[in-house]
């Protein structure tokens, strides 16, 4: 984990947060993900008048990486200019679990230079992952 360039991830996520489209919540979020390739991808939250059509920064960052051909990731960092450090929401934890291992670090930071670090496994224990689908023909047959 020590070889992860967290300042680079924070800088990328902060720039992404500046592009957030959050007119309803006024809660801008930026996320940076570090792929196994070493490349960094970013996303911001994009809200919608329907509210339900809103997509979080985490899922947009992962989608940007996937369209670039990435499938495996080493770290994710959330940036919000909020006093409380924001963790990924439940839906995003599920999407992160599709591509990150349980021991992958998930960090949150803010404009006050505060940071909090979890593993994905701490945020989503006993995750439903693709492994279960691969084994589905053997289970309960
Ligand atoms: O980790 C989080 C938490 C919230 N949001 C967005 C969704 C919505 O646009 C706004 C308020 O929930 O923040 C994210 O993008 N990521
Ligand atoms: Zn989310």
From TrEMBL:
Q: Where does substrate bind?
A: 45-51
* Class of the enzyme per the UniProt entry, highest EC level: hydrolase
Kindly list the cofactors needed: Zn(2+)
EC number from the UniProt entry: 3.5.4.5
Q: Which SUPFAM superfamilies match?
A: Cytidine deaminase-like
Tell me which InterPro entries the record gives: APOBEC/CMP_deaminase_Zn-bd, CMP_dCMP_dom, Cyt/Deoxycyt_deaminase, Cyt_deam_tetra, Cytidine_deaminase-like
Q: What is the top-level taxon of the source organism? A: Bacteria
Q: Which reaction does it catalyse?
A: cytidine + H2O + H(+) = uridine + NH4(+); 2'-deoxycytidine + H2O + H(+) = 2'-deoxyuridine + NH4(+)
Query: What are the GO cellular component annotations?
Result: cytosol
Q: Which UniProt keywords apply?
A: Hydrolase, Metal-binding, Zinc
Which one GO biological process term can you cite for this protein? pyrimidine-containing compound metabolic process
Which CDD domains does the record match to this protein?
cytidine_deaminase
The record's function comment reads: This enzyme scavenges exogenous and endogenous cytidine and 2'-deoxycytidine for UMP synthesis.
**Which protein, by its recorded name, is this?**
Cytidine deaminase
Taxonomic source organism = Rheinheimera nanhaiensis E407-8
Q: Which gene encodes it?
A: cdd
